[in-house]
Amino acid sequence: PDDSLRCKVRMLDPADTLAQINLGAALLTGGRAEEAVAVLSATVQRHPRLAEAHYNLGQAFQKMGDHELALRNFERVRDLTPSWADNYINLGMSYRALARFDEAIAAYAQACTLEPDFTEAAFFRSLILLGLGRFEEGWRDYAKRSLAVASKFKLHRAPLGRDLTRARVFLRKD
């Protein structure tokens, strides 16, 4: 977002919390994490129980590589809205970045508990488990994700109508 957008949003109503959250998200999406932190920090100060503001602020800190501050915000979101599965993904990412692997595994597991079809959470959890040498658990989670992804796609039929399921297909670089 350009500076004119920022001025327009602020001119509408600087106390409009939703506008400030949206501005922070737009700044973050536009690669302006530092500015997003300023906007969202002010919103969090005015509304400390607003989970969405903490969530976006946590994402801004993650983009900046400050996982300690990101965790503070994502933990606050967890306290305010414990059933928000996406938040557990962000918790897991920051825990993982800080080498707090058991906490990351637990966060991803909680996301899977809240949304059993949350394949990204199972995948991220599997990567940590595999990296820690906990292969049985890790492959089980990895397989869940692979099966979920595979079930979304059907194999295409060959031009002559032959089903390629279980067929050996060779590709050439041409």
Q: Can you tell me about this structure?
A:
The chain has 174 residues and is mainly alpha-helical. The chain contains nine helices and no strands. It has helices at residues 3-12, 17-29, 33-46, 51-64, 67-80, 85-97, 101-114, 119-131, 135-151. α2 packs antiparallel against α3, α4 runs antiparallel to α5 and α6 (85-97) packs antiparallel against α7.
Mean pLDDT: 82
Q: Can you tell me the residue ranges where pLDDT is under 50 for at least 5 consecutive residues?
A: 153-161
Distance between the termini: 43 Å
Radius of gyration: 21 Å
Count of individual helical segments: 9
Q: What overall geometry do the principal axes of the alpha carbons give? A: elongated
Number of strands: 0
Helix/strand/pairing class, anyone?
mainly alpha
Helix and strand run: HHHHHHHHH
**Helix share bin:** over 70%
Major beta sheet, specifics?
Answer: none
Beta content? under 5%
